Amino acid sequence: MKVILIDDEKAMHLIMKRMLAKMTDIEVVGCFLDAKEAYAYLTTHEVDMVFVDISMPRENGLEFSERVRASRRATKIVFITSHKEYALSAFDVYAFDYIVKPVVQERLVKTVERARAEIVPDIDRMVTPSESLIDPLTNRELDIALAIVDGLSNMEIAERFGLTEGTVKGHINRLYGKLGIKRRVQTVARMKELRMLP
Length: 198
Hints:
The structure is a single chain. The chain has 198 residues and is an alpha/beta fold. It is built from nine helices and five strands; from the N terminus they run E-H-E-H-E-H-E-H-E-H-H-H-H-H. A five-stranded parallel β-sheet has the order 2-1-3-4-5, with helices on both faces. Helix 6 packs across helix 8 and helix 7 crosses helix 8. The relative contact order is 0.11. InterPro entries: CheY-like_superfamily (IPR011006), Sig_transdc_resp-reg_C-effctor (IPR016032), Sig_transdc_resp-reg_receiver (IPR001789), Tscrpt_reg_LuxR_C (IPR000792), WalR-like (IPR039420), WH-like_DNA-bd_sf (IPR036388). Residues 2-116 form the Response regulatory domain. Residues 130-195 form the HTH luxR-type domain. Keywords: DNA-binding, Phosphoprotein, Transcription, Transcription regulation, Two-component regulatory system.
């Protein structure tokens, strides 16, 4: 998995590189102090995941993420920040994850493993509609989408799959981002457009 780091503090580059080096098959292909330079790199290189700070000069992490999404790249974006208050804004720009500093190794491993599982999709659960998704739904996201279609609430979905409501909300945020919708009621219509429902 190819990743880049964006943080205006060089110390964070060193910390993250040291932590990621403990995991297999992770290649840090770039470290940037500036989000605009990082975006320029993305336009000419394949990158699976970006770890980006939010509070930075010139262009902050949220603005960077908006540009990445507008370009329709499927790169996964993980915010690593000292600010808890930007979490909702982060998921509005379809963040894959949101980690509050100081970064803990175990927490980082969980994020990377989840991303790794999604990069190798389950072919049996994927669809090939005339209008395809840039970032295919994971098995769990598809299960939750179908549960939404069945009319289940977040609490009922959590009970069905043995998850917390917070986890369900996180899955739904990512699901909305992948489907390009903003409201629950749009789920059925969008899935029919993509031929994910009869």
